[in-house]
Amino acid sequence: MDDIRDGRVVVVTGGTRGVGAGIARAFAATGARVLACARHPPEQAQEGVEFAPLDLRDPPAVRAFFAALPRLDVLVNNAGGTPYRLLTDADAERHARVIELNLLTPLTASLAAHDQLRRTRGCVVMVGSVSGGRPSPGSAAYGAAKAGLENLAASMAVEWAPEVRVNTLVVGMVRTEAADPHYGGPDGIAAVSRTVPLGRLATPADVAEAAVFLASGAAAYISGASLLVHGGGERPAFLDAAEADIGHHSEGDTR
Questions:
Q1: CA distance 77 to 66
Q2: Calculated CA dihedral for residues 225, 231, 236, 241, nearest 10 degrees
Q3: Residues 12, 46: Cα–Cα separation, whole Å
Q4: Contacts of residue 116, Cβ cutoff 8 Å, sequence gap at least 6
Q5: What are the average pLDDT values for consecutive 10-residue runs of the chain, which has 255 residues?
Q6: For the chain, percent helix, then strand, then coil, each to nearest 5?
């Protein structure tokens, strides 16, 4: 994208692996200066991507990091995640740490970046999740945080307009380096992929291209939006559970 070139600066939180690394690579390919923030360096350096050590749960450090940047055009709030944990398997304090990582740290980073973004008329891209729009057993605190993140982005887009655009990528299942153990290897991934209308999990590049689009001039009139990057969503369970040929039923019969 031409409007990302010419010395523009992009910060990607959690940009050293998985989806974040894919996003960092995609912005680097546009010619931007890209800084990938994380607590630990990547196992392998990415061409065109600078590693910036930063603990996003340390607000003073986050503020100091953004204040020291010569400029900032795009902030991608990607850092997040959660282990599988039923609500009753942990205390509230542990669940609160999941909410802190997935909701409060994007707020902290966005506030710290606001003045820089306002000067460049830049944008924020939140990396959300389909877990924020449906029940998420085993990751309830994560789902709640992602629901809050999408709402935060919509409010932020209104408060910070017209200088700063803010949008959310609502991401479905992605095949990262953690996918094989998470889904039980190739057979598990194949089975899960069959539940997605497009027939496969997303790649980090799929999410990355959507992020680059939202940060580009092609999306200049898009703010406060949630872009679904989920391959069509999930096939409704009743379609496979029903014994009858529901395709022959009327609309009223299937409600």
A1: 13
A2: -170
A3: 13
A4: 66, 69, 71, 72, 122
A5: 67 97 97 97 93 97 97 98 96 98 98 98 98 96 98 98 98 81 77 90 96 98 98 86 58 47
A6: 45, 15, 35
Backbone angles phi, psi at 102, to 5 degrees: -95, -15
Q: State residue 2's pLDDT score.
A: 45
The one catalytic residue among 84, 142, 183, 221: 142
Q: Distance between CA atoms of 140 and 31, rounded to whole angstroms?
A: 39
Q: Are 17 and 178 in contact (CB under 8 A)?
A: no
Q: Has 142 been annotated as catalytic?
A: yes
Strand residue runs (E) in the chain: 9-13, 33-38, 49-53, 74-77, 123-129, 165-171, 226-229
Q: Is 158 exposed, middle or buried (0-12, 13-18, 19+ CB in 10 A)?
A: exposed
At 76 the three-state DSSP class reads strand
| Cα separation, 78 vs 75, whole angstroms | 9
CB 211 within 8 A of CB 125: yes
Q: What is the total residue count of the chain? A: 255
Which backbone phi and psi does 35 adopt, to 5 degrees? -115, 125
So what's the pLDDT on residue 175?
Answer: 84
Q: How far apart (Å, rounded) are the C-alpha atoms in residues 59 and 125? A: 19
State the pLDDT at residue 250.
47
CA–CA dist 223, 114 (Å, integer): 15
